[in-house]
Design goal:
One of its GO terms (molecular function) is UDP-N-acetylglucosamine 1-carboxyvinyltransferase activity. This protein is α/β, with parallel strands linked by helices. The chain is built from 14 helices and 26 strands. Bound molecules: uridine-diphosphate-N-acetylglucosamine and phosphoenolpyruvate.
Length: 438
């Protein structure tokens, strides 16, 4: 068990490189199960716990997986017959494991996947996956903690999603690539990760049109093959560092990212008085001494992303006045606020809305990361706090951030990662001889 220890008060300056996108990689890893011919070479794959968790599941399902974490290159091959049952121990750690459902069903006519269960950000039902797969002609049952789907042949259909779910859009898009005839997904999610998956599927020989709009049309094909693909940058990692720069009144170039993917965040940062300069390969973020309050509502893309809500809440708490935060995607995504209370934050929560009372003078405290983005937000609060902040449960942060504390250190933060069992011993992979910024 490790924790991050942050001594606040440092201004972040410099340049930070952004990794490939975790949330684009996961469905693409799952989609590799659809290819009966050829293998895959994926570039710019982030070395993250979630990617490794998905690799473990693919291996269990009989795919060949070689991940060069130094080179960020992932080789996948699913040409051998695949298994089509994913037991609980392979899916319980990560929600996105459910994404193997569509590909396995499309390829083998049967899929049995353990239900990933609820998590720290809300109940996360899967009714839209079930509704969509049923519309494609599958018989879908939920029993003994598993979702079981079978179909002799999937048939193209018109599917309307009651909510533009990212996961359901991805799952159904993958299943429909091998269905007979045409599938249309209406009210589809429009996230950049959806476009990325469609591009990848098309490189595999699929015929997917309209990704990035609310209607996706998929013409089924007889087989899919391997390909080479380079993943897009991670917009949530980029957004987190943009907010970190603003929180510390810093001057940071967030490099190797696509500014348009974070247009909603940039609009909000600018409203708060932060300067964001778009550059060829990313953005430069210049903080301000006087942050203005702002109201934010999370929404499906291109609205403000829920995955940046905990992080932006820290900036809102620093602003001069009252801000509101309206969380419309996940009902339990305010867990970080209760932790921030220990650090002096003042707020009231009423249903999905938090009223944040700034400006906060954060003071260091011992806090716990309830989930991935909550963990990132607590670290960011630590950067702005007086004194020392200790963030526990950092394995949550490892799910989605590669070398988080090393990157923050390189920008000037005073941050360490230590083993809780021995608070004086730094953990392996986190060397003791890094420059001390004191
Ligand atoms: C691996 C990955 O890409 N994860 C992202 C993905 O999660 P994920 O794909 O799980 O999120 P969804 O877009 O599906 O969920 C959005 C909303 O739809 C609801 N819903 C979803 C499916 C369903 O069958 N029924 C239903 O009601 C959920 O409860 C939630 O309220 O999109 C979320 C919303 O941008 C992000 O926070 C996650 O980081
Ligand atoms: C919520 C996230 O991931 P997941 O959907 O895998 O829980 C996230 O990346 O912030």
């Amino acid at each position: 068990m490790e924790k991050m220890v942050i001594k606040g008060g440092r201004r972040l300056t410099g340049r930070v490189h952004i990794e490939g996108s975790k949330n684009a990689a996961l469905p693409i890893q799952a989609a590799s199960l659809l290819a009966t011919v050829g293998s895959f070479r994926l570039a710019n794959v982030p070395s993250l716990l979630d990617i490794i968790t998905m690799n473990r599941l693919l291996k269990f399902l009989n795919a060949t997986v070689v991940f060069d974490q130094e080179k960020h290159e992932l080789l996948l091959d699913a040409q051998k017959p695949v298994a089509n049952e994913a037991p609980f121990e392979y899916v319980d750690e990560m929600r996105a494991s459910l994404l193997v459902m569509g590909p396995l069903l499309a390829r083998t006519g049967y899929a049995k996947v353990a239900l990933p269960g609820g998590c720290a950000i809300g109940s996360r039902p899967i009714d839209l996956h079930i509704k969509g797969l049923s519309a494609l002609g599958a018989q879908v049952d939920q029993r003994d903690g598993y979702i079981v789907a079978q179909a002799d042949r999937l048939t193209g259909a018109r599917i309307y999603l009651d909510f533009p779910s990212v996961g359901a859009t991805e799952d159904l898009m993958m299943a429909a690539t091998r269905a007979t005839g045409i599938t249309t997904i209406e009210n589809a999610a429009r996230e950049p990760e959806i476009i990325e998956l469609a591009n990848f599927l098309n490189k595999m020989g699929a015929r997917v049109h309209g990704a990035g709009t609310t209607v996706i049309r998929i013409q089924g094909v007889n087989f899919l093959h391997g390909c080479e693909y380079r993943l897009m940058p991670d917009r949530i990692e980029a957004g987190t560092f943009m907010i970190a720069a603003a929180i510390t009144n810093g001057d940071v170039v967030v490099a190797d990212t696509i500014a348009e993917h974070n247009a909603s965040l940039i609009a909000k940062l600018e409203e708060m008085g932060v300067t964001v300069v778009r550059q060829d390969d990313g953005v430069r973020v210049l903080g301000t001494a006087v942050l203005l309050p702002t109201n934010i509502k999370t929404m499906p893309y291109p609205g403000f992303p829920t995955d940046l809500q905990p992080q932006i809440s820290v900036l809102q708490l620093l602003a001069n006045g009252v801000s509101t935060l309206d969380e419309r995607i996940f009902e339990k995504r305010f867990m970080h606020l209760e932790e921030l209370r220990r650090m002096n934050a003042k707020f009231q929560i009423s249903g999905p809305v938090a009223v944040l009372d700034g400006p906060t003078k954060f003071s260091g405290a011992e806090v716990t990361a309830s989930d991935l983005r909550a963990g990132a937000a607590l670290v960011l609060a630590g950067l702005a706090a007086d004194g020392v902040t200790q963030v526990r449960n950092v394995s949550e942060i490892d799910r989605g951030y590669y070398h988080f504390q090393q990157k923050l250190r390189a920008l000037g933060a005073q941050i360490d990662r230590i083993d809780i069992a021995d608070k004086f011993k730094l953990s392996p992979g986190h060397p003791t001889n890094e420059t001390n910024h004191d």
